[in-house]
Amino acid sequence: MRTLLIPAPLNEGPVEVTGDEARHGRTVLRLRAGDQLYLADGAGCRGQAVVKSVERHSLQCVVTKVVTLPHSAAEQIHVVVAPPKGNRFDDMVRSLTELGVGQISPLACERASRMPTLERAQRVAAEACKQSRRAWMPIIGPVLDIAACTTSEKALMVLDPQGKSPVVGEPKEVMLIIGPEGGLTDQETADLQAAQAGMMSIAPHILRIETAAVVATGLFVSAWTT
Q1: Three-state DSSP class for residue 174
Q2: What pLDDT digit, counting tens, does each position of 5-60 carry?
Q3: Which of these, 85, 121, 175, 213, is most buried using a 10 Å CB contact count?
């Protein structure tokens, strides 16, 4: 069934869907009275609902059942990535959201390109949540620099062609750092290593930023969910 996002908290009973989600339901999904759908609040709750009426600026629904879904192990992954150019960042956010990561932050480093619009990335993540029926929205942002990464209490893992084969281990809070197309500078790499960051290599060739982010994240997600 189709899924629409509403503000938390989602409860049983009458629910009014407004704004872009109502417009999407009316004009794209062409929902009509009597249609069934899912409503999700991005904070773990998903409900079965039925459309009671379609108004000019809203959908009037009734939620008949709500379930609260647990966090997944993948939500412990915080991907900090130098944003690729153009729509490639949106594509990456979409894929990482589908994989289930808990947070995505652009990395501001010496060779990084212009920072993306976080509001747009949030919309992309919301659409990916609906498509994948994910119950928890990832956090988008904030922009982090190398210094902020080195002070994190999470385990640091950095993609580096000179690194070792990844050892995923048991689920834990991980900050996965992917540098820009030109690579991190020697000083940035040294700063991360001084903060006890692990250096990992995931392929024999140089990967595009979005490919590296998805492949590296997939290694953790696969190991933690099987």
Answers
A1: strand
A2: 999 999 999 999 999 999 999 999 999 999 999 999 999 999 999 999 999 899 99
A3: 213
Provide the pLDDT for residue 226.
65
| C-alpha span between 211 and 7 (Å, rounded) | 32
Q: Domain 73-225 maps to which CATH number in 3.40.190.10, 1.10.1040.10, 3.40.1280.10, 3.40.50.2000?
A: 3.40.1280.10
Residue 179's SS3 state is coil
The CATH superfamily of 3-68 is Hypothetical PUA domain-like; domain 1 (2.40.240.20)
Cα gap 114→175, rounded to integer Å: 22
* Pairing mode, strands 58-68 and 45-54: antiparallel
